[in-house]
Amino acid sequence: MAINQSYLAQDSGPEEPGDSSELKADRSKSPSVWRRFGLQIGIGVVGVMIWLLFLFSAPAVFTQPAIYLAFASTTPLFLIIALALTFVIITGEIDLSFPSVMALSMVSFTWVFQSGGFLGLAFLAAIVTGALAGALNGYLVAKMGIPAVVITIGTSFLFRGIELAAMSGSGFPLTDPALDPLREVLVGRIVGGIPMQFVWVMVIAVLLWFLLNRSRFGSHVFLIGDNATSAQLMGVSVLWTKIGVFMLVGALAAFAGMVASFEVSYFWPTLGEGTLLNTIAAVFVGGTSPFGGAGSVFGTLLGGFIIGALNAGIVSAGINAFWTQAVFGLVIILSLVVQVVIQKRVRS
Amino acid sequence: MNDTAVITPVIELKNVSKTFGEVKSLQNIDFHLDPGEIVGLLGDNGAGKSTLIKTIMGYHAPDSGGKIFFKGDELSDWSVHKAREIGIETVYQERALCEQQSIWRNMFMGRERRNKFGLLDVKGMREEAARLMTEHMGFTSSAVHPENAVLTMSGGEKQGVAIARALHFQAEVVILDEPTMGLSLSETKKTLNFIRSIKEAGKSAIFIDHNIFHVYPVVDRIVILDRGEIAANVVKDGISIENLMDGLQSVARTGTWSTKNGN
Known about the structure:
The complex is a heterodimer of chains A (about 350) and B (about 260).
Chain A: H1 17-25, H2 33-57, H3 59-62, H4 65-90, H5 98-116, H6 119-142, H7 148-166, E1 172-173, H8 180-187, E2 189-190, E3 194-195, H9 196-213, H10 216-226, H11 228-233, H12 238-263, E4 266-267, H13 276-285, H14 297-316, H15 324-347
Antiparallel strand pairs in A: 1-4, 2-3
Chain B: E1 11-20, E2 23-33, E3 38-42, H1 49-56, E4 67-70, E5 73-74, H2 80-85, E6 88-91, H3 103-107, H4 122-136, H5 155-168, E7 173-177, H6 185-200, E8 204-208, H7 212-218, E9 221-226, E10 229-235, H8 241-254
Parallel strand pairs in B: 3-8, 3-9, 6-7, 7-8
Antiparallel strand pairs in B: 1-2, 1-4, 4-5, 9-10
Helix pairs in contact in B: 4-5
């Protein structure tokens, strides 16, 4: 490096030898564990506290494996999508159309399966349909500049409408023995009755952790959510990165749609309804910033566990079912408030 | 003087215009930057300075008919990514940093380094960021950890990150858009020294600033923009700073270049 030897270095001597070194001393170390992972630690503590609460209020239920197996079979249905949605929310966008994408991609699945019976091809067709639906969302948001919260409501109706029209409003039973290999892979039970969908959540979480933290694409997701203009000035493609994150949600919505359908051996035309709020809540409870630029796969995993535990646990814990939603809302609001407080303290 | 005829400019713009809707930000700009040359770009707010450098950088595409050359080759499908790849780096007025992100992520923004598996070489980027900060930004004994978020830094330090970024990629051409804005006296001095060092290393630079007392001492040539057009192009050795100020005032008042003592 030839340029520069002179930049800054020679002048810094006489400047402020005393005060600056003292001021800067605490910045020489890697930021403390608390500073970097405080949010995740906080979320983890909240999760453990909720679990302890359940454990003490209904020890008979929460010391038996049944409740945990129920939790492991239902939580992945929305958590798989929440892991991908984390990427979209870090870029500062949102996707409200994934419940419809789950159903739309199942249409492709049933069509391809019925027409030839190739299971792998049907699986692929569903994933591609989801990714294409996501690409449309991404294009409308990033290229046309339409706010995501508005346009994905539009595409949500469109995808659901196409699905209902294509299926004439009726479902499709997934009981054909020819479907069994895929059923085993997606929702089979392994040792101790652990559902495969739970294994998939963990596998997808690990893969997405690498994608977010160890790939160029992941870097660009953070940079764009933080300051899209700066990123663009430095040559990051905002358009392609945003299309990419929406495609990721679409593809994993398709995957989750298959998991949810195979779990009940039936493709309901209403597939996906009811997953929207759980999924979004998992991401935000997991500490991903609603302002963009910050978030983590690990946080969403914890957030999903908390939401899933509330789903599975509130009634089992003997709390009146009418209170479920209120408890739910309270936990979400509290965790968001705590996050904003933590973030403000870290920054000041 | 006869060798000036054979020098191929590092960057050359021919007949470049840029229109945003109804607004003509740049009109028929002919501009060149020679190897080892520092050109000062002056002009009022809205004269088109930022548009001009963003066009050179590939952030804005010029209107059809405009041509950009790099070392004599005409460029097509120009993009920021390509501009940086062939060695043009810009230190933007707004610094183009993502403040919530770590220093190393900012330094390698848009040109992240990868290992042989295609994954980010996080360790290497952290070490390189730490090295650049100690060797080039004057943080003795790595006073700032590369994992720190940029928002914890002072204005001068942020500028240091933006400059170190340009340095790391061994830029052939460094464009500095008002790099001294908001800096302290000593930070400004450091920045001006940095610009001198670019020339010593045989590289070229375009230096934009409002303050001609910053520009005059370090540049070889001064180009003055006014309302999207080049109003004057003067070699520094041929003009005194007083005449330069005269000329600038005349451009501001009348749109044409003239000085009391002639030039």
